[in-house]
């Protein structure tokens, strides 16, 4: 564990607590979609002193737990917090009895695809045209049009 992540404090978002939209919107530009999963999911916020430096949302589904949203503010990216949040989510899902965890990301999210595979997630499916169907504005990353959702799973 590196210096910074050793000082992180993970806090569960209590029912009725202020939803950290600013962070969640970094990973998912649709507030409407965020509202469709945030209220029936578990949300953890990572703090460094009193500053929120990361968030993830875990939804328990029929046969699998899914990380619906994971985000770190730009000035804190690249310091190992994302990796720490992924580890935490996997541990929480396993403790709750799940044997598999899923995460989905855009076809254009090259860094995220790298990170998730590096952390043991394997590609299982592609939801064609997910982003073009659900988001009104075109999304471009790394010079690539974001159209499809790539699903990755990890055995816990
Ligand atoms: N591009 C290139 N490499 C990346 C990226 C990226 N966008 N993100 C992470 N990495 C690499 C890092 O270089 C590092 O590699 P290394 O271990 O070989 O040095 C590794 O992945 C781990 O990086 P961390 O520092 O742990 O990741 P970070 O704290 O930056 O968090 C995250 C990663 C959550 C994706 C962050 O970049 C972020 O919030 N991005 C914007 C929101 C977003 O895209 N969220 C995910 C959308 S999908 C979903 O929410 C289900
Ligand atoms: N990793 C990251 N970025 C890459 C890579 C790579 N391995 N290869 C190319 N790129 C990027 C370049 O950075 C460049 O991006 P930019 O335009 O944003 O600056 C872009 O892709 C184009 O790069 P070129 O210089 O045109 O590509 P290059 O001449 O290096 O050829 C190739 C790419 C053929 C993949 C070469 O790296 C290679 O021979 N690699 C080893 C063999 C291989 O993997 N072949 C493909 C296997 S799949 C198949 O054969 C069907």
TrEMBL record:
Protein's UniProt keywords contain Lyase: no
Keywords annotated in UniProt: Transferase
UniProt xrefs under PROSITE patterns: GNAT
InterPro entries with a match to the protein in the record: Acyl_CoA_acyltransferase (IPR016181), GNAT_dom (IPR000182), NAT_camello-type (IPR050769)
Lineage top rank: taxon: Bacteria
Gene3D superfamilies to which the protein is assigned, alphabetical: 3.40.630.30
Domain N-acetyltransferase: residue ranges: 1-156
Keyword Transferase: yes
Protein name as annotated: GNAT family N-acetyltransferase
Natural source organism: Chitinophaga defluvii
